[in-house]
Design goal:
Blueprint: H1 5-22, H2 30-37, H3 41-53, E1 57-60, E2 66-69, H4 78-86, H5 93-96, H6 113-127, H7 132-137
Antiparallel strand pairs: 1-2
Helix pairs in contact: 1-2, 1-3, 1-4, 2-3
């Protein structure tokens, strides 16, 4: 499993929008999100389009335009955001880049295929336990031991 910048930035963008909405702001412009998250504007716009296409955010046009969450933060899981940003949470090589067409087919004789699908299932089950609301409030932090050398910001 590898979370790319798309996934990481998708989480940062969604959390920033949620935090601004919670503070009473209207739509948040892409430029503001990019500056606050230190993401190049064109990159942030691409991520926001992915989030919009997958119903995480909605866009508002006009002078006061920008992005709003399409649902409540408690209804948007970390998995939702990662899938919207990246396409999958765990790429199964059997599907994406089969090593051997016969062995990697759904009917092939491979003992690894069930292992990889089981791992993806566990990753997805883990990620749906946490919502954007959890990231905003920091309530997810209780589930993880903290290393005393790591400073944790509940707002990412």
């Amino acid at each position: 499993m590898h979370i790319t910048q798309w996934g990481e930035y998708g989480l940062h963008c969604a959390t920033f929008i949620a935090d601004r909405q919670r503070a009473g702001s209207d739509a948040v412009p892409a430029v503001e999100i990019a500056e606050a998250q230190k993401i190049p504007v064109d990159y942030a716009q691409q991520i926001l389009q992915r989030l919009r296409k997958n119903s995480i955010v909605k866009s508002v046009r006009g002078p006061q335009g920008g992005y709003l969450l399409s649902r409540q933060p408690s209804e948007i899981t970390v998995r939702d955001i990662l899938v919207a940003s990246e396409g999958e949470t765990f790429e199964v090589i059997c599907d994406s880049k089969p090593l051997n067409a016969e062995r990697c087919s759904p009917n092939g004789q491979c003992n690894l295929r069930p292992l990889w699908y089981g791992l993806r299932k566990h990753v997805d089950e883990f990620l749906v336990k946490y919502t954007l609301e959890d990231l905003l409030t920091g309530s997810h932090l209780k589930d993880f031991p903290q290393d005393s050398t790591v400073k944790i910001n509940p707002h990412l």
